[in-house]
Amino acid sequence: MIRAIPTGQWRRLGVNALALLLILLAAGCSTTPPSRYHIQHDRGPDGEVDLSHLKEPTPRKEPRSRGGNKSPYSVWGKTYYVMNSSDGYVEEGVASWYGTKFHGYKTSNGETYNMYDYTAAHKSLPLPTYVRVTNLENGRSVIVRVNDRGPFHGGRLIDLSYAAAKKLGYDKKGTARVRVEVVTEATTPAQVAHAATSKPVVTAAPTPVPAPTSDVAQGYFLQVGAFSTELGAIKVRNHISSLLDAPVFVSKPDTDSIYRVRVGPFVKEEEAARFLDILQRAAYPETMLIKRALNNPSI
């Protein structure tokens, strides 16, 4: 014979089931999503490590990596642009460093991160690029190879490997104010020394540039701004290069000391106007459209 369950017992069973369901839901909500990294917080190595034997990388010409150079790309809802060219790049800002948490994992260009190599991460320089990083607080410098993307928080300019940060003397404090400048084969000490000891090459005198006439071909340019220092102009040029898929250069006529940042040339005025609209919307409202001779656009 089947015995009926009293109403009160049904009520208690219902309450217990509801409580169990709430516990399971709470446990599910509090679970942290799995991370690709084996530790939660980044840090340096356990104990002191002697890095005096490490040699800085020698800048050389390399093709762009197949990975890490997509432009534009987005991280945490923000869009970033990779520069078309790193030539002449100089910028000052805050450097951080990354270590054990990322050691052994893939970098943005597909290589394996080694915290004991002289490498770095940058948001917009082409991968790979060689840069000299100088700690503005103590004057120490190091050449690193940029093969990763970042840092993406805190208004930081560059993220160095643990080894590079240690050489610059800020591995204990986390960040430092630095200058970052691109170096190439021609700017390394060995190349400079070779050039100094090489015999001069006799060349023919350069052909004088003819004065502009009505027959000289002209093109359209965008003048973003004029600056009293070359460094200020270069910083703006680097930023514009990360925004536009168009030639950007610093112009300085011999007749004055003003550095002008210009974009172009453009064959059609309509094309120049399209880029003008982009720049004026991207915090450069003073940008203006100009027409100049193609054989001497610095005037």
Describe the protein.
It is found in: Cell membrane. Residues 214-292 form the SPOR domain. The protein is α+β, with helices and mostly antiparallel strands and 299 residues long. 22% of the residues lie in helices and 24% in strands. The chain is built from five helices and twelve strands. It has helices at 7-30, 162-168, 189-197, 230-243, 269-281; strands at residues 73-75, 78-80, 90-98, 119-122, 129-135, 141-148, 158-161, 176-182, 218-227, 248-251, 259-266, 288-293. The strands form three sheets. It has a six-stranded mixed beta barrel with strand order 3-7-4-6-5-8. Strand 1 (73-75) and strand 2 (78-80) form a beta hairpin.
Secondary structure elements and their pairing?
Elements lengths: L6 H24 L42 E3 L2 E3 L9 E9 L20 E4 L6 E7 L5 E8 L9 E4 H7 L7 E7 L6 H9 L20 E10 L2 H14 L4 E4 L7 E8 L2 H13 L6 E6 L6
Parallel strand pairs: 3-7, 4-6
Antiparallel strand pairs: 1-2, 3-8, 4-7, 5-6, 5-8, 9-11, 9-12, 10-11
